[in-house]
Amino acid sequence: MKVLSDPRQAAVAAFKGGEDALALILCEEAMVQSPGRPAPWRLKGQILCRLGRGASAVNAFKRALRQEPPDALAAFELAILLHAGARRPMAIRMARLALALGVDRPRLHVILATNLFYTGDLEGCIAETRALEAMGRSRPEIGELERLSRRALDTRRRLANTADRPGVRHIAILGAPYVGSTLLGILLGSLPGVGYAGETQSMTHRFDSVAQELVPIDFGRPGPAHYNVCRCCREACEVLTPAFRASLAADPICFYDRLGVRLSVETLVTSDKVASRLRSMDPLFRFERLVLYKPPLTWARSFARQRRALLDRGVIATADVGDVDSWLRTWIHSYESILRTPPPSSRMMVVNWDRFVHDPAVHFERLTAALHLAGDTSVFDALKPGHFIGGNGGADIRDVLATRQVRFKPSSAPSLSEAEEARIQADPGAQALAARLDRRHRLIFGG
Fold this sequence. Notes:
By secondary structure, this protein is an alpha/beta fold. Helices cover 55% and strands 8% of the residues. The protein is built from 21 helices and 7 strands. The strands form 2 sheets. Strands 2-5-1-6-7 form a 5-stranded parallel β-sheet, sandwiched between helices. It has a two-stranded antiparallel sheet with strand order 3-4. Strand 3 (205-208) and strand 4 form a beta hairpin. The longest helix has 22 residues, at 140-161. The radius of gyration is 26 Å and the shape is globular.
């Protein structure tokens, strides 16, 4: 190879041209010629990032920072990398170092605002959102962080004023639609001291089929024709009354705590399923995550059947039924967003519903033991649904509510076409995500 007079410039040119292997070689040559210069180390870190070698990139950026003077742009690049890996305290430290070294870019304030929020420094998060506004670079997601920070501060104040009351434990079932969350919620809600509230967004909102979105409920209009009512008591429910639900809508601070107190339970189980809903209603992340899933193939069968049933009833248009690719995107997005949600203080538990149904007694006993809940499988024949809103309206749940018993059976959803099923089984993203969920399931249930 020809020896270049300035291998660093040649490395930059190779990097910009997408020749990463050559750029890496030239970086090494630049380091030999000028061992004290930080720029080659920073460029090496950028190359390694693009090659997907994050750990090595971190080390390269750190070497750039150990030179004299420390490389400000290396601190910036390292903050970006640490932020992407959710290494929050280190991302904050590097972003602040980059600012101190003179790199004042909007992205650094975004990194700081995000990671300060998730590490509980709410005042600091608000200060960074204000800095972005002053730079004229605020974005909707940053405004959302400020709103959540203020709600979290209000929650802290409310909790401080009610410190003499016992707290309500919250177990949140998360997952894609049609994975068995209503039945699992009823099972857990039948245990001593536990109450199942259902899909709590339906406490204050209803789905508008015309607008195709959730809209606030007008509690001045009469019951079930205009909003969901208690599945057990209907409009006669004396617990989930319109007045109580209107109070939750008007003041959502400590939403889950107040709902648990209303149900007179020590542990509240909900099945909102969506991570963003939980984050919005409890920005202090005091909930425990119980992730419920079906593998991509069996879930797609269930989802396709439900979409076609909605089409037959005239609830959705033909274009909204979707195809196998849109179904997979829904499944992947649901579980990726759940796994990205910063963990609360307690661990996340994952349940494969297909396996649960295959051996419910063993799975239920191990699950209740992992959750430290009293009770056993005797609830299968003595369910206590209590008061809950929303959830699956299918025949299986109607039968459970009528008989107060559950009989587990495999999904009866019909197969998809051979081509559709082959497409699902060959999708690398869905299969990799399913493998991640399966490993977490085995941590509790084995097999």
